[in-house]
Amino acid sequence: MTKPMVRFENVAKRYGALTVLDNLNLEIARNEKVSIIGPSGSGKTTVLRMLMTLERINGGVIWVDAEPLTHMEKKGQLVPASDRHLRRVRGKIGMVFQHFNLFPHMTALQNCMEAPVSVLGLTKQEAEGRAVDLLNLVGLSDKKNHFPIQLSGGQKQRVAIARALAMRPKVMLFDEVTSALDPELVGEVLNVIRKLGAEHDLTMLMVTHQMGFAKEFSDRVCFFDGGKIVEQGPPEQLFGSPQNARTRQFLNAVLEAG
Ligand SMILES: Nc1ncnc2c1ncn2[C@@H]1O[C@H](COP(=O)(O)OP(=O)(O)OP(=O)(O)O)[C@@H](O)[C@H]1O
């Protein structure tokens, strides 16, 4: 069997007395598209933040592409990762956030060029070629010299996707990327994600409140509650005939809210 692209092995995350991830076990196969759904505060974003190493975990091991991310191997033992190790393995992961997080003083093109030059050491010319191709991919070639303030929310989010892709990640994380958008702009961002999923070798993990998109796009949907996966399965199964009472309750509440 091929090794999973991402593996959470008994991962725990606590903030003081609050347990946010409770011995989480989750494996994501190469090129698999997985959505995480669940109530507010259930730990969905924390899963992505731990993968981005934005904070340290309190227990367990996270693996990416058959390498420990949170640890490193020393004399056959796993020891906590050094910052250097974290940076290197984390380079395989790209993340798109709810609030775009673009550099306001840089154009769309410069936003996509910054990290490939400063982190990967590409020449400006190489980075520009890559950025132009990616802005084209997300349908923004004509906006490359615009600053974030001159772009709509949907356009900003598409620049953020191009910027993450410019680092050539193997795994892309999407954290409620349409939540801050006006409803009429949601579709253009989802279309870009759809296209990426269909045309590129990318493992994708997304936290979403867009049940329709999760249903159509994902190979697997995980329902989270209380820092645990309560139920998971192919979308037709999870949405069509949820087995767990808590999942049914959540899905009914979402349906009622429209
Ligand atoms: N830095 C922090 N310090 C203390 N508690 C935190 C911190 N970050 C998150 N939490 C808590 O951890 C829990 C899980 O948060 P998380 O953001 O992962 O939930 P979520 O399922 O993504 O929620 P939402 O759908 O509202 O975004 C929440 O109770 C939150 O208040």
TrEMBL record:
Any one GO molecular-function label of the UniProt entry: ABC-type amino acid transporter activity
Location within or outside the cell: Cell membrane
GO cellular component, one term: plasma membrane
InterPro entries reported in the protein's UniProt record: AAA+_ATPase (IPR003593), ABC_ATPase_HisP-typ (IPR030679), ABC_transporter-like_ATP-bd (IPR003439), ABC_transporter-like_CS (IPR017871), Ectoine_EhuA (IPR014343), MetN_ABC_transporter-like (IPR050086), P-loop_NTPase (IPR027417)
Topology class, membrane: Peripheral membrane protein
Annotated ranges, domain ABC transporter: 6-251
Alphabetized SUPFAM superfamilies for the sequence: P-loop containing nucleoside triphosphate hydrolases
CDD domains named in the record: ABC_HisP_GlnQ (cd03262)
Keywords assigned: Amino-acid transport, ATP-binding, Cell membrane, Membrane, Nucleotide-binding, Plasmid, Transport
NCBIfam families according to UniProt: ectoine_ehuA
Family statement drawn from the similarity comment of this UniProt entry: Belongs to the ABC transporter superfamily.
Protein name: Ectoine/hydroxyectoine ABC transporter ATP-binding protein EhuA
Gene: ehuA
